[in-house]
Structures are given as structure tokens and as C-alpha cells.
Write a structure and sequence with these properties.
By secondary structure, the protein is mostly helical. It has 2 domains: 83 residues, Rna Polymerase Sigma Factor, Chain: A; 88 residues, PhyR, sigma-like (SL) domain (Butyryl-CoA Dehydrogenase, subunit A, domain 3), CATH 1.20.140. Helices cover 74% and strands 0% of the residues. The radius of gyration is 18 Å and the shape is globular.
Length: 184
């Protein structure tokens, strides 16, 4: 079933929408959750929470790209669960990835809706300007929160090459944000 038909099921409040979402995006959502939580049970619960959040979000929201919409909800749900359940014993890999990216974006930048919109547009513009391979590395690290090793294995690159690419890309990202007038 295509995404528009699934969204239409949500709009009609047809419970088949959840089953169709699970059939089409279940593995996608699970992989996002698992990359963050590293637990089968937690990941499955996170995916189920995602389905409920999508059910509650549509309507009124009408996502243009359903896969991105559900991926973002899954990611945010998994990050919330991660913070809640592992506040005392943090996974160094995920914390490191978030710390790396926080160097580019100031904590003062988040909060205001207009600032969030400007930041979202700047991030999208930056990602569009990157070469495909660099964009894939950046997204795998900072959206899907894969480890350096997982990225290097998946792209048949050395870990040091991935690290250098990420370091240079973060620097370019910082410069891009400054050029866009976004306070860092």
C-alpha cells in the first residue's frame, strides 16, 4: 500500500492504518530504535509507541513524506526512552555522537519556533550541499546514531576515514550555520 493510502486510513481513523504501517515500515522503525536503544524489547516497545504517536498525530498533521515522518517520531521516541531509562549509565557512543553535534548548535538556539524553523531549513540546505557519500556518513552518525565502526563497515571505509570525514563535515556545518546567520 502506498503512503497516501496509509495516511488516508489514519484520517478515516481506520485501525488498519497501524497494520499497514507496520507491514511497510516496521523493520525501518525497529532498526532506528535498535541503533539507539541496543535492546530488542525496548526497540519493539518503542516501535509500538511510535504507532500510537502516529495515530494521535494524523490528523491533524498531514505528512508530505510519511517515511521521514515516522522515522523522526521513532527516533525521538527512542531518544526519550534512552534518556529516561539510562540516565545513570549512558552509552558512550550515543552520548559522544550527540556531544559532537552539539558543538555545532548552541543550546540557546533551540526552543523558539522561528529558531527551530530556521535551524531546520539550514540543516536541510547544508545536507543538500554535501556530496552523497558525505551526506550518508553524516546522517548515519547523527540521525541514525550508528557507531563509527558500523558506518565504516557499512560503507567499506576505514574507521579513521569516517572520523576525518565527520570532523571536516562538522567544521563545514559550523561555518554553514555562521554564514546563514545562525548563532552558534
Amino acid at each position: 500500500m502506498d503512503d497516501r493510502a496509509i495516511i488516508e486510513l489514519y484520517n478515516k481513523r481506520d485501525e488498519n492504518a497501524i497494520g499497514e504501517t507496520q507491514n511497510k515500515y516496521g523493520r525501518y522503525c525497529y532498526s532506528i530504535a535498535y541503533n539507539i536503544l541496543r535492546s530488542n524489547e525496548d526497540s519493539e516497545e518503542c516501535v509500538n509507541d511510535t504507532y500510537l504517536k502516529v495515530w494521535n498525530a494524523i490528523p491533524p498533521k498531514m505528512p508530505q513524506i510519511f517515511s521521514a515522518f515516522i522515522g523522526k517520531i521513532t527516533r525521538n521516541t527512542a531518544l526519550d526512552r534512552y534518556e529516561k531509562e539510562r540516565a545513570q549509565k549512558r552509552d558512550a557512543g550515543i552520548e559522544l555522537a550527540l556531544d559532537e553535534l552539539s558543538e555545532c548548535i548552541s543550546s540557546e538556539m533551540t526552543g523558539e519556533a522561528s529558531d527551530d524553523f530556521a535551524l531546520k531549513n539550514a540543516i536541510n540546505g547544508f545536507l543538500a550541499s554535501l556530496p552523497k557519500r558525505t551526506r550518508i556518513i553524516f546522517m548515519r552518525r547523527y540521525f541514525y546514531l550508528l557507531s563509527i565502526k558500523e558506518i565504516s563497515d557499512g560503507l567499506s571505509m576505514s574507521e579513521s576515514n569516517v572520523k576525518v570525514t565527520l570532523m571536516r563535515t562538522r567544521e563545514k556545518f559550523r561555518e554553514y550555520l555562521e554564514n546563514e546567520g545562525i548563532v552558534i
